[in-house]
Design goal:
Elements (H helix, E strand, L loop, with lengths): L2 H20 L3 H15 L10 H19 L2 H15 L4 H16 L9 H10 L5 H13 L8 H10 L6 H23 L8 H8 L16 H23 L14 H19 L11 H26 L1 H12 L5 H13 L2 H15 L10 H7 L13 H9 L17 H21 L1
Length: 441
């Protein structure tokens, strides 16, 4: 390995480290700075900017922001709260189910934010360690991105895999089944812990730092809130139907005039327009919603860090292809490890898939005429959800801060936090099940 390559790796990892330390939009800032250093100082040609991913995220977030302003998001959260409060004994299973479904529906894991305080309340009331349902709920909200029909990661990956004979409905079915079961198996494994045995909780309880549960609060649901949810749901169903109809394996719509990316962006913007008109949303307030702010931060983060990652990968395509051809073809599960490590650094499911997948496809010689190895990409896709490894992701930090029992925490060694083991287990089971299911499909 030459000195130049070592310096390039140092810049790549250094930019990511600085971005992680800055947090939030700082990840995007540091990524852009890393591209500048790689280009001007180390002679690397800037990679491709993932405009398709960024624009899909922006359009979906725009629609969800309108729904939030109409009260629809609060309505969904209220329904989820009622489910949790009515079945408190099953919080370890219901919490990840709720956050998983919300992410599937909305295409963003940030919806888990609103559920964190509720999960803490219900867990305390049942003498259950909040870190158990919180950890798997946050992880489930991240893994569900790889099964959501409106997520940029799924839209990108289905576009890559369809020419190899995989239909959109089949891919969605595989990822929904494997990721959901992976999260549920993990929930079963980690649910064997109670709250009373935690020494930190006992100490905080004596000091009066733990607030007593307050129970479910009533909420006035407006007709506009319900209508906005129905409009968004119909929009999601339209995305699924159209993406299935234009899939080469289904072929209901020929010729395909509007490609999938353009369809989902236009449908989501149309959903936003319908919610605005029918629910009488004040457009001036859309940019001020929490969903819009977090979504735009996500766009900048993807812009910076995905651009940085593509710059490095594009500059070392041959080496990566050689490695993939020699190792991944012999040990398919190693692709999951590659996805896992890349996601840990790139901090985005869509950015990770876009940075790694084209090189793997080329290295393994996957083509329409020779699609045999494409099953590896399908089975390992869930591994791009390793955003929990570094304890800096917003929902992860939110769970730590909102758990007043102190059971959800970050350890001294950074990686030994409450989400690491549940996250690794959930991805392991999702990928393992992916290989099993792909064997039948």
């Amino acid at each position: 390995m030459s000195i130049m390559v070592i310096l390039q790796i140092v810049v790549l990892l250094g930019a990511i480290f600085i971005g992680v330390r800055l947090g939030g939009i700082g990840i995007g800032y540091a990524g852009g700075a890393g591209v500048l250093v790689l280009g001007l100082c180390l002679g690397m040609k800037p990679g491709n900017i993932p405009w398709d991913v960024i624009l899909i995220i922006a359009s979906v977030i725009a629609a969800i922001s309108a729904m939030q302003l109409a009260g629809g998001l609060q309505y969904l959260v209220y329904i989820a709260e009622k489910i949790l409060y009515k079945n408190p004994k099953y919080i370890n299973y219901l919490a990840p189910i709720v956050t998983y479904v919300l992410t599937i529906f909305a295409g963003t894991g940030h919806t888990a934010f609103s559920m964190i305080p509720v999960i803490v309340e219900v867990a305390k009331g049942e003498n259950i360690r909040p870190s158990v349902p919180l950890s798997i709920a946050v992880v489930a909200s991240q893994i569900a991105i790889t099964a959501s029909p409106v997520s940029a990661a799924v839209i990108y990956m289905t576009g890559v895999l369809e020419p190899f004979g995989w239909s959109y409905p089949a891919l969605l079915g595989v990822w929904l089944l494997t990721t959901f079961l992976g999260c549920m198996i993990t929930a079963f494994i980690i649910s064997k812990m109670d709250l009373a045995s935690d020494p930190i909780y006992q100490e905080r309880l004596k000091e009066g730092l733990v607030k007593p549960p307050v129970g479910l609060k009533d909420m006035t649901i407006t007709p506009s809130a319900k209508l906005s949810v129905w409009i968004f749901l119909i929009g999601v169903l339209c995305v699924v139907f159209y993406a299935s109809a234009i899939s080469p394996a289904v072929g209901l719509i020929k010729p395909v005039i509007v490609p999938r990316d353009a369809a989902i962006m236009s449908l989501m913007l149309a959903v936003g327009a319908l919610i605005t008109v029918l629910c009488k949303v004040n457009l001036g307030d859309v940019a001020g919603t929490s969903v819009f702010k977090s979504g735009m931060v996500a766009c900048i983060c993807v812009l910076g860090v995905a651009w940085l990652g593509d710059t490095f990968v594009s500059g070392h395509t041959k080496e990566i292809k050689d490695f993939a051809a020699q190792t991944i073809s012999q040990y398919p599960a190693l692709l999951a490890v590659v996805f896992f490590l890349a996601a840990m650094l790139l901090y985005s499911q869509a950015a990770t898939a876009k940075a790694i997948t084209p090189t793997v496809v080329a290295a393994l010689g996957i083509t329409a005429a020779n699609p045999d190895n494409s099953y590896m990409l399908v089975a390992c896709f869930a591994a791009v959800s390793a955003l929990f490894v570094l304890p800096t992701y917003p929902t992860l930090l939110g769970a730590v801060q909102m758990d007043d029992t102190g059971t959800t925490r970050i350890g001294k060694w950074v990686f030994n936090h409450s989400f690491f083991i549940p996250g690794v287990l959930a991805i392991f089971f999702s990928v393992a099940l992916g290989f099993v299911v792909c064997g039948f499909v």
